Amino acid sequence: MDFVFLYETFVTLISAIPTTLQLAATSVAMGTVLALGLALCRLSGIAPLDWFARAYIFVFRGTPLLVQIFLIYYGLSQFRGVRRSMFWFILRDPYWCAIIALMLCTAAYSAEIIRGGLLSVPHGQVEAGRACGMSRFLVFRRIVMPLAIRQSLPAYSNEIISMVKATSLASIITIMEVTGVAAKLISETYRAIEVFIVAGAIYLAINFVLARIVVLIEYRLSPHLRQAPSLQPVAAGEMK
Amino acid sequence: MTQPSFLDLIGSGPDGWGPALAAGAMMTILIALAGYAIGMVFGALGAWAKIAGGPIARGVAGTYTTVLRGIPDLLVIYLFYFGGSTVISAFGHLFGASGFISFPGFLAGALAVGVTSGAQQTEVFRGAYKAVHTGELEAAIACGMSPFLRFRRIIAPLTLRYALPGMGNVWQIVLKESALVSITGVVELLRQSQIGAGSTGRPFDFYFIAAMIYLAISTLSGALLQFSEKRFTRGVRRG
């Protein structure tokens, strides 16, 4: 094992970590908003909205992410209307194309997770909220949403981790994130195994930290599942 | 010169890419099937190690699933494609060949897809084995079945029955992952679309039809899986 080479690879790859994290964070944040909209469409009971959300989820879950990225990055430039539109400065930039594709894709997967969370809220809770005189929006904001978030967190951490892995596809449209830099190093040095070990360790570390953070949030959000902190026994004579 | 219409592009006429795209789709299915088969082997071995293995086997299987589920598939494909070439070239030098010998892209792709899906398959099989009632195993022992007979008649059929939904999910993931194999130059569906897009200047049309073909394959195989699931759980009482 050539430790000097491993160390140099590590230093080179570290500089690419911010790009990976930015891609993942931006697309997950934007994707969550879109997913919430889709989940609400699915649950709205309005047929056209429901069918739109169903079709969207079906298409984006049934096609490979790489095809979606190519469709947005290479495909849209086929149309003169797109090239002349005001959005062209976004759509010609591989970074934003990658974010848009990742966002659209994660929204389809997250929508089902969020829908499951929303459905898991017991009806009695909603009725209790209504009985207290809360408006529908207030019930959603104070009762349904917090319970749904807590319920869907474990599944959501899987989705976040798979998004971190999916950012590697951005390297195919020239973005130099961790996998992109690793591929460049491999083609320069022909030492695939060493570079793979370092890059793989970086991804594992990122995903491990993210998974721990989600577990921590879940722990904070579910105090009702833990034993209440026991009170100090007080002798009768000391009572005041 | 007039631009060929979308239907001309996907047809089999003089401007048509239909046959080429169909061949690409067949290649995609082949890669996915090969990768899936390799993944089944890895999954079965991994599950066996996790269930019945000693501390070392369990440790190896645990590391395997943790690592392969935590790193991007693309990185694994790079490893097999470039790493395989390095190993083969080194062997070539031993036998007097000179220069760089490239590893076949199909093999690298199928292996990479197989190893990554094997990690998911391990968990699917392990979960399915856990769902088998201990009473059934005890009954088999009470009937005097040997361990092999027990595995063949009781454990394997029941585990496969419980594993079917999870195996279907893994198949869908493998099918979509096979698109990444296009970077090794194997002319599967996505690579064929790239070639078509490059030579006609119609990227949207080609990637759109590629997406539709992927959607069709995954929908059809999904329906097939659902049918087989229904068939193999005929004997199970519902509700």
Automatic annotation (TrEMBL), chain A:
GO molecular function term, any single one: transmembrane transporter activity
Q: Which UniProt keywords apply?
A: Cell inner membrane, Cell membrane, Membrane, Transmembrane, Transmembrane helix, Transport
Major place of residence: membrane
Write out the transmembrane intervals: 20-43, 55-74, 86-109, 160-183, 195-217
Q: Where in the cell is it found?
A: Cell inner membrane; Cell membrane
Q: Which SUPFAM superfamilies match?
A: MetI-like
Q: Name any Gene Ontology BP term.
A: amino acid transport
Classification via InterPro entries: AA_ABC_transptr_permease_3TM, ArtM/GltK/GlnP/TcyL/YhdX-like, MetI-like, MetI-like_sf
Superkingdom of origin organism: Bacteria
Q: How does it sit in the membrane?
A: Multi-pass membrane protein
Which Pfam families does the UniProt entry name for this protein? BPD_transp_1
**GO CC annotation: what is one?**
ATP-binding cassette (ABC) transporter complex
The family database entries (NCBIfam families) matched by this protein are listed as:
HEQRo_perm_3TM
Q: Which family does it belong to?
A: Belongs to the binding-protein-dependent transport system permease family. HisMQ subfamily.
UniProt protein name: Octopine/nopaline transport system permease protein
What is the originating organism of this protein? Rhizobium wenxiniae
Automatic annotation (TrEMBL), chain B:
User: What Pfam families would the database entry show?
Assistant: BPD_transp_1
Where does it reside?
A: Cell inner membrane; Cell membrane
Membrane-crossing segments per the record:
20-48, 75-95, 206-227
Q: What is its main location?
A: membrane
Q: Which UniProt keywords apply?
A: Cell inner membrane, Cell membrane, Membrane, Transmembrane, Transmembrane helix, Transport
The record describes its membrane topology as:
Multi-pass membrane protein
Q: Which PROSITE patterns match?
A: ABC_TM1
Task: State the CDD domains in the record.
Answer: TM_PBP2
User: In Gene Ontology terms, what is one molecular function of this protein?
Assistant: transmembrane transporter activity
> Where is the ABC transmembrane type-1 domain positioned along the sequence?
25-225
Q: Name one GO cellular component term.
A: ATP-binding cassette (ABC) transporter complex
What is the similarity comment for this entry? Answer: Belongs to the binding-protein-dependent transport system permease family. HisMQ subfamily.
According to UniProt, the name of this protein is Octopine/nopaline transport system permease protein
Q: Which organism is it from?
A: Rhizobium wenxiniae
